[in-house]
Amino acid sequence: MKKAKGLIITIISIVVIIAIIFGIHTLTNSHAQSKSATITVGSQGSDYDIWNHIATSKQAKQLGLKIKVKQITDGVQLNNATAQGSVDVNAFQSYSYLVAYNKEHKSSQLAALGTTYLEPLGIYSDKYKKISQIPNGATIAIANNPANTARGLLLLQSAGLIKLKKNFPALGNTNDIAANPKHLKFKEIDDTTGPRVLHSLDAVLISNTVALEGHLNVLKDSIFHEKIDTNTRSNINILATAKKNKDNKNYKKLVKLYHEPAIQKYIKDQYDGTKVEVQKPLSYLK
After folding, report:
1. Residue 191 is part of a domain; what is its CATH number?
2. Is 89 inside a domain boundary?
3. What is the pLDDT of residue 231?
4. Are 96 and 110 in contact (CB under 8 A)?
């Protein structure tokens, strides 16, 4: 009987010890998770301003997220920083830009966490009010990075200025133009300089983020812009992280946070509706 009681006491003692150890582990793990809620979000342009607002919002606090926002104005450098870990998540690029980056940087792969918005790419001109007024031999500025070059050429085709080859590739360029009836000339530029060169060229293709910095509204000031449809799905903006972090729960909370109604109202009011919310599964982009 004494042996039985002793065995019971021993078992109880072991259970208590295990419970204490488990409690300490849980507390430590909870503390670690709390610390991991500090997320460095890298961004640029108007997106940088948006994420500074989000970082201090009541909604971020309600989700238990502490966000530090870091500005890196060069897209490739921002993606490099994300792949290397000095930035946890970035908010600036379209899905097609991410795909192009991954193709060119095999050892620094990124993954999308979720969709955010679509901004129409626009054709702007200080000289002409309509696409039909662009003359023969006009010089048009297009972005010098692969994803935005291809996107710009597709827009010029939609505007009726050029015709592209069949099966135009995702990273197509001016060599893939099948017909150029107006004998247009193309000048490749750093796409962040669009508003500054607008006065010196016949037309310039400018992304909305850059246009907003130059006090331009794509819906009001462009002479032609992308329509929101399934053909522009690869141009939807995303939140991105290093591929190894694609399942990080705290990072995924940023997608939910972005789509909070109060955050969306702020963005709509601040940017005149030019950042069209897109809340779709990642499978929609592919």
Report:
1. 3.40.190.10
2. yes
3. 74
4. no
